[in-house]
Design goal:
The chain has 16 helices and twelve strands. It is α/β, with parallel strands linked by helices. Strand 10, helix 12 and strand 11 form a beta-alpha-beta unit. Helix 1 crosses helix 16, helix 4 runs parallel beside helix 5 and helix 4 packs across helix 7. The chain is elongated, with a radius of gyration of 21 Å.
């Protein structure tokens, strides 16, 4: 069978789609994927054929900033934001139309389900959605502005395809159309989210790709006490690395702990060196986290799942972006760690928070929760099974 996959955003947005795409490819299916230009390397390293889709990462960040400004000043910015989003949807739509032609199923990541729903309807093929956090929770809290922007651009796309306007937001289209909505996280986080036949939980979908730094990092870890891991995902682009490393170093020195700090690709030669601190530009969560004492991170879905799968406590230092606060709340609710807004961090608060998550009670609870997490291989296998079944049913319906 042929599967078309569309994802947009950073690594946390793309990796779940790529992980299930790799599994479908391994099973002998034809898989084609559309991702942002900056994510082509990641997807191709997993063995998948990919095409560039939408603007680059920096333009995406600028669009998100404009959206936030529209929320604060809706009269002055709303039309400008709508025009820009509409242009991006039109460009993405052209790519996705080509990608999905001849496919048996179209799988869409979190942000792509609106345009994907219209294109799947045009070709008469099943649409499946991939949610790495409960989309209905975020949509319900994002207010009228988000719905109005997406509905207007979705309706423009539908008119171009010869369809009538929508009667509701994209998530409602999925429900009304009977689409499969894969929940790529574990039920333990959000037991209140309905899980019927169309919203099955499969657990986090990750590639677990090795990095060139794995052996060096694991060797450093083995040379002393297990460290605390620090990594801040996309937030790292807006924080001063030297100041952050200095604060982490001082806090860990006060506690007698070692620190493994992920800062992404870049030149860190100007950052002071500390004997109890190691800075890395790449990290394989699946290989490294089980050797750490705890994980401190920004609240990404993949990093949260990797830490809990490893059975170690978490401290989430979240920003006001997408799902980060949801994961922070889930970690606190599960009693496997703590959380604080990133803007409120001080050396004193970091010391106090680290002490709280390194207590025997929190460590024990993290180990207990790890036994309830779905293993990575089981997650990708379950997701692939669901997609194969949906594609087969779609084929049967078309050829009756």
């Amino acid at each position: 069978m042929k599967f078309a996959l569309a994802g947009y955003g950073g690594r946390g947005d793309i990796e779940p789609c790529a992980a299930v795409g790799r599994e479908l490819l391994r099973r002998g299916h034809e898989v084609r994927m559309a991702v942002p230009p900056s994510m082509l390397g990641l997807v191709e390293s997993a063995g998948l054929a990919a095409v560039a889709y939408g603007p680059g990462t920096q333009e995406q960040i600028n669009t998100a900033t404009d959206f936030l400004l529209a929320v604060q000043n809706p009269i002055g910015k709303l039309r400008e934001v709508m025009d820009h989003v509409g242009q991006i949807w039109a460009e993405k739509g052209a790519t996705l139309m080509s990608l999905a032609k001849g496919a048996d199923l179209l799988l869409a990541g979190m942000s792509e389900q609106g345009p994907a729903a219209n294109i799947a309807e045009y070709y008469g093929i099943p649409l499946a959605a991939l949610h790495f956090f409960p989309a209905q929770v975020l949509i319900s809290s994002s207010g009228w502005l988000y719905s109005d922007i997406t509905k207007e651009v979705a309706d423009a796309q539908r008119r171009a395809l010869g369809f009538p306007n929508t009667t509701g937001p994209s998530p409602q289209q999925l429900v009304d159309g009977g689409s499969l909505e894969i929940q790529a996280y574990d039920e333990i986080y959000f037991p209140e989210v309905a899980a019927d036949g169309r919203r099955p939980f499969v657990g986090a979908l990750t590639l677990e790709l090795p990095t060139d730094a794995d052996d060096e990092v694991l060797s450093w870890i083995a040379g002393g006490t297990p460290p605390i891991y620090f990594g801040f995902g996309s937030i790292v682009r807006v924080i001063p690395p030297a100041d952050t490393v200095a604060m982490i170093s001082a806090a860990c020195a006060q506690l007698g702990e070692r620190a493994l700090i992920f800062l992404g690709a870049g030149d860190f030669t100007h950052i002071p060196h500390f004997d109890h601190v190691k800075i890395v530009g790449a990290v394989n969560h699946a290989a490294v986290f089980p050797a750490c004492r705890a994980v401190v991170h920004h609240g990404g879905a993949g990093t949260t799942a990797a830490g809990l799968r490893a059975g170690i406590p978490a401290l989430i230092l979240f920003a006001d972006w997408m799902d980060m606060r949801l994961w922070a709340d889930a970690v606190r609710r599960l009693k496997v760690g703590s959380a604080r807004h990133f803007s409120a961090i001080t050396q004193e608060s970091l010391v106090a928070d680290l002490r709280s998550i390194l207590t025997p009670q929190c460590v024990t609870r993290a180990r207990q929760v790890a036994t309830q997490m779905t293993k990575s291989a089981e997650s990708v296998a379950s997701a692939a099974d669901l997609l194969e079944d949906a594609a087969r049913r779609g084929r049967m319906a078309r050829f009756r």
